[in-house]
Amino acid sequence: MTTLTGPIGLAGPLGAETASPPEPGAVRRLTCTGIEQVARAVKTFRFAPCDGYDFDYEAGQYVTVLARIDGRDIGRCFTLSSTPSRPGLALTVKRKPAGAVSTWLHDRMRVGDEIDVVGPVGYFTLASDSAASYAFIAAGSGITPVMSMARRLIDAGKGADIAFVYSAATPDDVIFDAELDAMAASGAHVRTILTRRAAPGGPAPARLNAGRLLALVPDLAVREIFVCGPEGFRSMAVDAASAAGADSGRVHTESFVIGGDADAAPGGISDPGGVSAASSATATFTVTFQRRGRVIDCPADSTVLEAAGKAGLSLPSSCTEGICGTCKSTLTGGAVDMHHQGGITPAEIDAGRFLPCCSKPTDDLVVDA
Ligand code: FES
Questions:
Q1: Torsion angle of alpha carbons 175, 176, 177, 180, nearest 10°?
Q2: Residue 7 located in a structural domain
Q3: What ligand 1 atom has the least distance to the C-alpha of 344?
């Protein structure tokens, strides 16, 4: 057994050494229990929590995998492709040549190895299983959250009417191929569109566009719609739903985008949690990391994560934009101006949690880290 990542930037017991139930948002250590090639360059990695406690999540949520690669701490978000109504956890990951963590998982992960994850996080979920009919529209790796949701509905046994439209480049790139066939055989309306190379004897390759989508799902407007794929694909599906007359409140898209302007991102949430006094942009505050025994300076116009990095402190992080929740920590003293994008819940903020990646100090801080 190999532990592929250490407890990055954290002190205290983890994984198998944890005696009490893990707190929400805590780093969890998982053991790899199985690896399966599910499409070209795509593997499903199955896991079980080392601490023996349940890993609660909703279909469609994601976790951040924490990895130490070549001496660097890196966090990357991956959707849980497993389904809460079935045993075990799974990540289905496409190997991207420039993707440090995806190549690390593909090339180094073995059954019995352990990894650390933070989460689950994310609001691209079913919320309830009470709608009469659903449309799941996905491209490429975007199938992972919607397949998790579709399975969840099937397992609920309420006879939900499911339309599933999936776009992949070639037959070799179809993820969950056999499962899609089984879903179709059990009565779901499943269509796989191949965009670059057709299956033997199948229809010619063609891109999925709004007209084709509406021809495949003529009653799209009355369904609860979930879309996951690249930006152009998502806008095509959203436009098609809108043209068909769908209520925008019933159209759900995965909106995990890294690299934009966090404060200007659509749907961003500004949370003033814990603002104490008016701060000067030129003021500098101290941040005490209790468990590390380190005190650093943090200018009022710098995030706590940026200041920690400049001081040589490695904190867990991934998106650095308040989305993923990887950096979530507990503030035991002081106050911050936090502008997150859904990576933390109001209940967690009330409990003193904060996200160092999108929080600037308005006071001297004490952090339980
Ligand atoms: S690193 Fe993603 S929320 Fe802070």
A1: -130
A2: no
A3: 3
